[in-house]
Amino acid sequence: MTAGQDTPPGPDEETVCRVCGYEGELFWEGGWPTEAICPCCGNESDMSDTSVTGIRTYRGYWTGHGARWDSPSRRPKEWNLLDQLSRIPPEWR
Ligand SMILES: [Zn+2]
Fold first, then answer.
1. Ligand 1: distance of its center to the CA of 3 in Å?
2. How far is the CA of 63 from the centre of ligand 1 (A)?
3. Would you list the domain boundaries of the chain?
4. What percent of the chain has pLDDT over 90?
5. Origin, by domain of life (predicted)?
6. Following DSSP, what letter does each residue of 56-93 receive, concatenated?
7. Across residues 57-63, what is the average pLDDT?
8. How far does residue 6's CA lie from ligand 1's centre (Å)?
């Protein structure tokens, strides 16, 4: 690959949601967003996820509305919001 040409904007692989810290879905692959929808916060991984400001805004909106699961059936019995938020990669906190 030639440097500076079509450099992917993201990581090779990322399985932790940048918004809520949910783990288990492939959100980025080969440097590009997979458009997977997080079952927890409902965020869809796309190009807007490259802005930490945008991520924080969405997270604030989501937690401000009660941090409801997008897919309630996927919610673990012993789910703990703060526990999960602590798994957000440092660069997206
Ligand atoms: Zn999420």
1. 32
2. 11
3. 13-84
4. 91
5. Bacteria
6. HHHHHHHHHTT---SSGGG--TT--HHHHHTTS-GGG-
7. 97
8. 27
